[in-house]
Amino acid sequence: QLGAGDAVLPVDPWWMVAGGLAAIAVFAWRQVRLAREGSPLLNLSTLAIPRYTHALALMAAAFMAMLGAMILLPLYLQDVRGLSTLATGLMLMPGGLAMGLLGPTVGKLYDRYGARVLVLPGAIGCTLLLAVLARVDMHTPYWVILADYTAMLVCLSFVFTPVFTLGLGALPAQLYSHGSSLLGTVQQLAAAAGAALVVTVMSSHAGDLVREGHSGLDAMAGGMRWAFGLAALISLTVLVLAAT
Q1: How far apart are CA 135 and CA 84, in angstroms?
Q2: Helix boundaries (H) for 38-171
Q3: Confidence of residue 12 (pLDDT cuts 50, 70, 90)
């Protein structure tokens, strides 16, 4: 028997995932064939350059962690804590502003000190801050959430700009446009995958807690903790990639 919020999907979700992966594989195969003729839409030979591929993997993991947190926090603030849409937006706004305004400064620091000095501390900070969010509950002070989220986006700003510059800097000039397009494509795919993963984990664990007798809000908060924990693990991947 279905509840009011339940729905029946016409196709098993795993079939949709498999179909998406198959479509990506066909697209990649097609681009490799076109590259032999000199007219690929997206030249995948950029992946043969190790430093670019390393930067691409790091960027993808960082986007998965960031978008996971950006999806979860509004849900937590509105559905668990009962904030309005306006109040939620105001809570998240300082982080976005800080990240945007830091772009030129991070670029100057990169020119002066290089990528590793910026990326490693940024990845460490992001992992630790996501681990803090993995402890949220019904009574976590708002100032803790505001400070944590703002600091996390500051840390990510120390990751994105250097990694993007480092990756594209490894490419020959004729592959710049293809490398930039591939980075943008992978960012979008990683963001979608990160959002899907954390929401799935949150929903699954929240459902388990409801079946164990927890209230709806407590169950959702518990699901959020698991989802933020997953985002922290993804961020740990960023740290490992940055250290290698």
Answers
A1: 22
A2: 50-75, 85-101, 103-113, 116-133, 142-169
A3: low
> Residue 185 and residue 42: Cα distance in Å, rounded?
10
Extract the tokens encoding 61. Answer: 């993991």
Element (H, E) at 113: helix 103-113
78-81 own/partner pairs: CB under 8 Å, 24+ apart: 79/220, 80/138, 80/217, 80/220, 80/221, 80/224, 81/138, 81/142
pLDDT tens digits, one per residue of 84-117: 999 999 998 998 898 888 888 888 888 888 888 8
- Coil vs helix vs strand at 24: helix
Sequence-separated (6 or more) residues with CB below 8 Å from residue 6: none
Assess contact for 122 and 155: CB atoms under 8 A.
yes
Selection from 227, 222, 167 nearest residue 194 by Cα: 227
pLDDT of residue 14: 63
CB proximity list for 72: less than 8 A, separation 6 or greater: 133, 198, 199, 202, 224, 227, 228, 231
pTM: 0.80
Q: Is 124 exposed, middle or buried (0-12, 13-18, 19+ CB in 10 A)?
A: middle
CA 237, distance to chain mean position in Å, is 11
Short-list 233, 223, 198, CA closest to 128: 233
Half-sphere exposure (Cβ direction) of 55: Cα atoms closer than 13 Å: 27
**What type of residue sits at position 232?**
A
